Amino acid sequence: MTTTGEEHTAAGTGPWWWVRWRSAVLDAGLALASAAECGGEGVRFAHDAGLPVPIGVVFGVIAGSVLLVRRKWPIAVVLVSIAITPAQMGFLMGLVGLYTLAASELPRRITAALAAMSFAGMLIVTFVRTHQGVMSGDVTMGDWFVPFVSITTAIGMTAPPVLLGLYMGARRRLMESLRERADSLERELQLLAERAEERAEWARNEERTRIAREMHDVVAHRVSLMVVHAAALQAIARKDPEKAVKNAALVGDMGRQALTELREMLGVLRSGNGADGRVSAASSSAALSSSSSSSSSSSSSSSGSAVAAVPLAAVGVAAAVAASRAADGSGAGAVSGAGAGGVVEGPCLAELDELVGQSAAAGMVVVLSVEGDVRAYAREVEQTAYRVVQEALTNVHKHAAGAKTYVRLAHRMSEIAMQVENECPPEVGAGSSVRLPSGGNGLLGMKERVAALGGVFVSGPTDAGGFRVSAVIPA
After folding, report:
1. What does the H/E/C string look like for 404-455?
2. What pLDDT is recorded for position 214?
């Protein structure tokens, strides 16, 4: 709430109908002054009316005290002042009453009618009193003097308070309108800040999910092949030492490739300056937490990158989006190297033969077929297609070791389709003894990747007892 709004809220602490205590004190002082005035004028009224002086004084005090309720019943105050005008008392009450009536929220026709009545009453009384003075010889002026004094007095007692009241009422309404507008704008700004903070949190969550998916695809495939080769190495270490040496070399190469990919991925996440670098670092921490299956640490890393001040929430959103784009540019997968600016190319379909060859070297029978004219696609499309095939082959290693696998890639007019299907795994085989852990996120990660590009992903068992993974991505 603005300062003006706080003052307005804190102001409603006065007694009864008064908003503030100082307003009550002011009205009490005005009522006391009006009562004193009317009481003094009641002496002359009592002499003119032939009444006892105490009665005239009491009447004047009671009439003048009506000014105390001017804020609650301004019409009553003006009517009382008009009623006692013939007694030539209540001038202060008439001025203050007309001002209060004009400044109130009452319809303007009521203000105009009462102001006209007050003007007429003052004009008549002044005219009569001045004419009596001229006729009695107290005043010796021309014929113009009586109407001049009457009109001047009536205008002077009516117009200034009414005009001042109208001005103050309009000014008060304008201030209230500005106060309400300021409060409304502040509420809107607060709502925008909350939405910006929610968007920043959403961007951080999306970044954590994306990096966890990349880590899973990159590390799981390499480690799965390493486990398969290690099992084969254990089986033939004594029977065929030369083949064991080759398998050991393959395990070492794959381990180095996994470390290289992981290092390059984290290097890209740590690159950048300013807000992008800070959000990227927070995203890197979230990725490491996700890879170690520690959700509490991930939450701690993400909260460290939250925007502290509400006005900076929009900057946090922009930084998160920029970091997300920078990380998407990395591919977070099999990369060819990082430049000085931290831009890293991700895996592409040209590396699909090498990917299939690695699975074949691990003992899997893999058949790769390509249909259509080979052409280049957007980096995100090629990276997603590569990851789908990679994760599908990893699942075959985990759940259907020794099964023959078919990898089909189709280049179509406006889309690219891929399918990885494995036959029913053998009941007993050399590879069936290799048990690989599964986190249960492989198919979900593939579906998220394809859906993010507007594609269609389908997976499920085949009638022959195998498993099929299919995806179609718009080109």
Report:
1. CEEEEEEECCCEEEEEEEECCCCCCCCHHHCCCCCCCCHHHHHHHHHHHCCC
2. 73
| Residue of 436, 460, 432 whose CA lies nearest to 446 | 460
- Residue 318's H or E segment, with its range, is helix 313-330
Angle formed by the axes of helices 274-291 and 295-304, to 10°? 170
**Is-contact 366 407, C-beta < 8 A?**
yes
Could you say which DSSP state residue 213 is in?
A: H
N residues, the chain: 475
CA distance 169 to 161: 12
Output the average pLDDT for the chain.
76
Domains, the chain, in order of start with CATH, read 3-140 (no CATH), 192-346 (no CATH), 347-475 (3.30.565.10)
Q: Which residue has the tokens 């070399």?
A: 249
- Give the type of residue at 72: K
Encode pLDDT of 411-424 as tens digits. 998 999 999 999 98
- Calculate the dihedral angle through the C-alpha atoms of 200, 206, 212, 218, rounding to the nearest 10 degrees: -120
CB under 8 Å to 468, separation ≥6 — which residues? 419, 420, 421, 422, 459, 460, 461, 462
What is the full DSSP assignment across 37-81?
HHHHHHHHHHHHHT--HHHHHHHHHHHHHGGGGTTT-HHHHHHHH
Residue 125's identity, in one-letter code, is V
Contact 351, 368 (CB under 8 A): no
Main-chain phi, psi angles of 370, to 5 degrees: -125, 130
pLDDT value for 345: 59
Better-scored residue on pLDDT, 109 or 333: 109
* Band of pLDDT at residue 407, cut at 50, 70 and 90: very high
Q: What is the pTM of this model?
A: 0.46
> 184 or 441, which is more confident?
184
Distance of CA 19 to the CA centre of its chain: 35
